[in-house]
Design brief:
Blueprint (H helix, E strand, L loop, with lengths): L5 E8 L3 H5 L3 H4 L5 E6 L4 E7 L5 E7 L4 H4 L11 E8 L18 H14 L4 E3 L3 E6 L5 E7 L1 E3 L9 E5 L3 H4 L12 E10 L2 H15 L4 E3 L5 E4 L13 E5 L4 H9 L4 E10 L5 E3 L8 E6 L3
Parallel strand pairs: 1-4, 5-10, 11-14, 15-17
Antiparallel strand pairs: 1-5, 2-3, 2-7, 3-4, 6-9, 7-8, 8-10, 11-15, 12-13, 13-14, 16-17
Pfam family, one: Glyoxalase_3
Organism: Lineolata rhizophorae
Protein name: Glyoxalase-like domain-containing protein
Length: 299
């Protein structure tokens, strides 16, 4: 049974907008950024790394250092220098999409998908909010619009459970073109990401993740947690579907980082590539958290 939801993007918080405009050599040696623009609230801007599997990495920075202003934002308390959240989208996201308003018939499919997912998780410790509009303006002046649905997990911060994003303008306007030939690391898609939560919360969240991704999505255990298969927007032959690993901390360092994150650590991002050196290699110089690229052989 295919996953009910697909991986859309991974969010990485960087210290300042300067990082987006003049990224360090440790990053540009591996990946190339596409300027994304400023969000409608004026509090954040981003740069993007498009991947051949239709997902992307969003490097995001706050436009203000004022903690009192940032506190109102859903990521306002997050520390820069790592993965802070990730988003899913619905089947059919790889299509061209089109302009639509919240009341348009074209919005019915995504809303129906979202409401079905909300119903599946309703009995657990997580509730998803109503879909809300989001927007940003690209550097070329083009406006990009979407709908997002955010989870509220009792006693856990943002990042413990993924949010959901549906396009209102064509997906190609929001998602940058894959530039694998410009990536020194050769990355073509996301293979794995891990969500680390307190041991006593793992069991209940395994049930939540199973409800989000639908029946048959749990593909194996990871200690006391689980592994859940996410679908891809675009197929990449030879690279397995992305998996989210839900687990407890493996050591004191992970526990420390999890505690610093208010009870969640999103880490262990693995990207896939073809060719290059055997095995895995770290990218970004550690400035963006734990990110590696793993080699796969084309079939």
């Amino acid at each position: 049974m295919p996953p009910a939801l697909l991986l859309d993007h991974i969010i990485i918080l960087v210290p300042t907008p300067t990082y987006l405009h003049a990224p360090p050599p440790a990053l540009t040696a591996s990946l190339a950024l596409t300027p994304g623009g400023r969000h409608a609230d004026g509090l954040t801007e981003n740069a993007l790394i498009g991947l051949a599997d239709g997902s992307y990495l969003e490097l995001i920075a706050f436009t203000t250092a004022d903690a009192s202003v940032r506190a109102a934002h859903w990521w306002g308390t997050k520390a820069a220098g790592g993965i802070i959240d990730f988003a899913l989208t619905g089947p059919g996201a790889g299509g061209a999409g089109g302009e639509e308003d919240e009341g348009d018939e074209e919005a019915v499919g995504p809303r129906r998908q979202y409401e079905a997912m909300r119903a599946r998780v309703a009995a657990g410790p997580v509730a998803f909010e109503d879909l809300r509009p989001g927007a940003r303006v690209r550097p070329d002046g083009r406006g990009v619009r979407w709908l997002v649905g955010f989870p509220r997990a009792r006693g856990l911060p943002r990042g413990a459970v993924p949010f959901v994003c549906y396009d209102r303008t064509p997906r190609a306007a929001r998602v940058p073109e894959a530039r694998a030939d410009a990536y020194g690391c050769g990355a073509v898609g996301v293979v794995e990401v891990s969500v680390v939560v307190p041991e006593e919360r793992v069991g209940e969240l395994v049930g939540v993740y199973g409800a989000i991704f639908g029946g048959g999505s749990e593909v194996g255990g990871a200690g006391e947690g689980g592994r859940f298969r996410m679908g891809r927007v675009e197929e990449v032959e030879g690279v397995p579907d992305p998996v989210v690993v839900l687990r407890a901390p493996r050591d004191e360092e992970e526990k420390k980082l999890m505690d610093q994150g208010g009870g969640v650590l999103v880490t262990g991002l693995v990207l896939g590539r073809f060719g290059g050196s055997e095995g895995s290699e770290k990218i970004g110089g550690g400035e963006l958290g734990d990110i590696t690229v793993r080699q796969f052989a084309k079939s």
